[in-house]
Amino acid sequence: MAKKKAADGAIATNRRARHDYEIEQTYEAGIQLQGSEVKTLRQGKASLQDAYAAIRDGEVFLYNAHIPEYPQASMQNHEPTRARKLLMHKGEIHKLAVKTEQQGYTLVPLKLYFKQNRVKVEIALARGRKHYDKRQAIAKREAQREMQRAAGAARRGERR
Fold this sequence. Notes:
This protein is of the alpha+beta class. The protein folds into two domains: 120 residues, Small protein B (Small Protein B, Chain: A, Beta Barrel), CATH 2.40.280; 31 residues.
């Protein structure tokens, strides 16, 4: 039985990234995969939990993204957490290289998904949040949610 895919068509998402980092800009990149990796992704099995991207020798690589082995691949199987090359234009890579050299910026994968039978990765240029920034973000989100509830109750004519 096939595993149910997420509503937005994502194979894997890094939900922790939006909590731990302040997202500045997002990019879409292709990813260089082996056949057994694609078959595993079609089953919906992957994890971006500890994954990160880095620029090495003018190329972008994705590290620690876990794609489990495909059981039917036998000898031609892949290593689950190998470094995978991301496919981007040279101009984009150069812009990212300049930004990541600045203090506090890093490349974080947000989502792994299929787009017209090709696997894509959404990576973000992000700045790490401090602990107090995380608390402020949570408080802001809770206040926004409470305002939405109050507005909905006012529309329905209820009192709180």
